[in-house]
């Protein structure tokens, strides 16, 4: 029965190879339950071969001129643009998000590729001339070796593109482990990367679950690991890999809040909240999942609910769809279970999105926009990251009270305020303890010239992905202190002090 179902390949030393694994997982269209492909859980030998390929390729890639590396990514961004529609179609088929949102997924990754093409201006060292008598000091930012990336299901284009382009542009080689739930668009991006000129062994891909993750954490030739995913897995990766002496950056779970002040522009604010809460069916680590209505803004619940009711739930391929399916049956069941717990724990279910009718896609993993009011800390729907189209509404009498509520939450990925008051916005950005802040911007993910700066329980590791911080993550600073003598230099004799003068 599986003979006609295509298999997802491994990428080892520039070749797409069929895995010898006996463990396979289906890649399922979440709107139809159609099996699109089978993905292997790579064997230990295959994982070792991918890492060995990266180690061997590093010998020459690290010496490749920085301009040559940059030109590959100039070509790569062109190929991504030319194949945007195909990439979005693959992404929607396996992940479920709408075609326009899928294009956005690819585009936000493309921005990082464009940034990688400017590596010549990013990987600059420093020089201080004549720091002592005839002594110069300068630094080099040199690559680490073989690096690895572990990516989640919700952005199967953007997040791999956060990782391997910057790692490779800085002179490293890379082993990528995509999500086993939707690896097909990632593999197509890797095909294009090879077409752009990335040499054999510089980019490798393995598939799998916990065993593959542990292998990357344990292997002595992996020098750094970048991870995006759940807090549970991210904490495991950070602890295991860092104990093995690796650099690690883990972007993890979130519970993003927005404060709505009564002076906010109502129509713009309601539109922003609905889009940020229910877009991608809520399957974003930067989704807006809690809104704190301050003062008279607490009277906006009915209007927000009416706005949410206008959103169209359908397959991502259907024109005009606002909310596509969740990625899997298990994800749908988990979200529905949390909605049930929200009701049981005393929150008011203002809008129930369970079991929407979607003609033609009766087997799809659909949950429509769902809104709870009167949500408080201690409730499961507040304490847990739901990762579905569920919005929790809370109230506060003042801005100070709202800020205090947000700062008590352990997560620090993103937050926002909606107001027309510069004083309120400035107080918010100063007092809030969250890494990424939006002012009248509901999903404040920075463009790639800056770094993704989630904080507190949403992040482990000091440096964020992409931007200037990731150049530091993927390089080691080597400091050289030099003095040159010519024949006319008069010897000062033996100097046993630490001074260089």
Automatic annotation (TrEMBL):
Recorded superkingdom: Bacteria
InterPro entries in UniProt: Ald_DH/histidinol_DH, Ald_DH_C, Ald_DH_CS_CYS, Ald_DH_N, Aldehyde_DH_dom, MeMal-semiAld_DH
Keywords per UniProt: NAD, Oxidoreductase
The EC number(s) this enzyme carries: 1.2.1.27
A matching Pfam family: Aldedh
Provenance organism: Curvibacter cyanobacteriorum
Protein name: methylmalonate-semialdehyde dehydrogenase (CoA acylating)
Family of this protein: Belongs to the aldehyde dehydrogenase family.
Ranges where the Aldehyde dehydrogenase domain occurs: 16-480
């Amino acid at each position: 029965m599986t003979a006609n179902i295509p298999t997802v390949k491994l990428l080892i030393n520039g070749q797409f190879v069929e895995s010898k694994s006996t463990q396979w997982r289906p890649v399922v269209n979440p709107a139809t339950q159609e099996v699109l492909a089978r993905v292997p859980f790579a064997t230990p030998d295959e994982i070792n071969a991918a890492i060995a390929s990266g180690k061997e390729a590093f010998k020459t890639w690290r010496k490749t001129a920085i301009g040559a590396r940059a030109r590959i990514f100039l070509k790569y961004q062109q190929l991504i643009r030319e194949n945007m529609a195909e990439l979005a179609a693959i992404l929607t088929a396996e992940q479920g998000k709408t075609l326009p949102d899928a294009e956005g997924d690819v585009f936000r990754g493309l921005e990082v590729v464009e940034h990688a093409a400017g590596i010549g201006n990013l990987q600059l060292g420093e020089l201080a001339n004549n720091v002592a008598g005839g002594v110069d000091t300068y630094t080099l930012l040199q690559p680490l070796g073989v690096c690895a990336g572990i990516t989640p299901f919700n952005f199967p284009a953007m997040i791999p593109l956060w990782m391997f382009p910057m790692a490779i542009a800085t002179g490293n080689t890379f082993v990528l482990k995509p999500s086993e739930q939707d690896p097909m668009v990632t593999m197509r991006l890797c095909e294009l990367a090879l077409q752009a000129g990335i040499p054999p062994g510089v980019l490798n891909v393995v598939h799998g679950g916990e065993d593959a993750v542990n292998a990357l954490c344990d292997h002595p030739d992996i020098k750094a690991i970048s991870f995006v995913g759940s807090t549970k897995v991210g904490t495991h990766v950070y602890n295991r890999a860092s104990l093995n002496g690796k650099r690690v950056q883990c972007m993890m779970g979130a519970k993003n809040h927005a404060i709505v002040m009564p002076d906010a522009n109502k129509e713009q604010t309601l539109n922003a909240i609905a889009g940020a809460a229910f877009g991608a069916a809520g399957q974003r680590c930067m989704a807006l999942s809690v809104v704190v209505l301050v003062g008279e803004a607490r009277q906006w619940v009915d209007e927000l609910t009416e706005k949410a009711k206008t959103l169209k739930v359908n397959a991502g391929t259907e024109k005009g769809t606002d909310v596509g399916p969740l990625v899997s049956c298990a994800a749908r069941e988990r979200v529905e279970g949390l909605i049930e717990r929200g009701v049981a724990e005393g929150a008011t279910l203002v809008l129930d999105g369970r079991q929407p009718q979607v003609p033609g896609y009766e087997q799809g993993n659909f949950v429509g926009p769902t809104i709870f009011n009167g949500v408080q800390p201690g409730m499961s729907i507040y304490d847990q990251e739901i990762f579905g189209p569920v919005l929790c509404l809370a109230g506060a009498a003042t801005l100070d009270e709202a800020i205090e509520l947000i700062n008590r939450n352990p997560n620090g990925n993103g937050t926002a305020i909606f107001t027309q008051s510069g004083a309120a916005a400035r107080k918010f950005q100063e007092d809030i303890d969250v890494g990424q802040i939006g002012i009248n911007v509901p999903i404040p993910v920075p463009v790639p010239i800056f770094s993704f700066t989630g904080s507190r329980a949403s992040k482990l590791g000091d440096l964020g992905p992409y931007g200037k911080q990731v150049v530091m993550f993927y390089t080691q600073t080597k400091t050289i202190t030099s003095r040159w003598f010519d024949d006319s230099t008069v010897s000062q004799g033996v100097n046993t002090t630490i001074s260089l003068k």
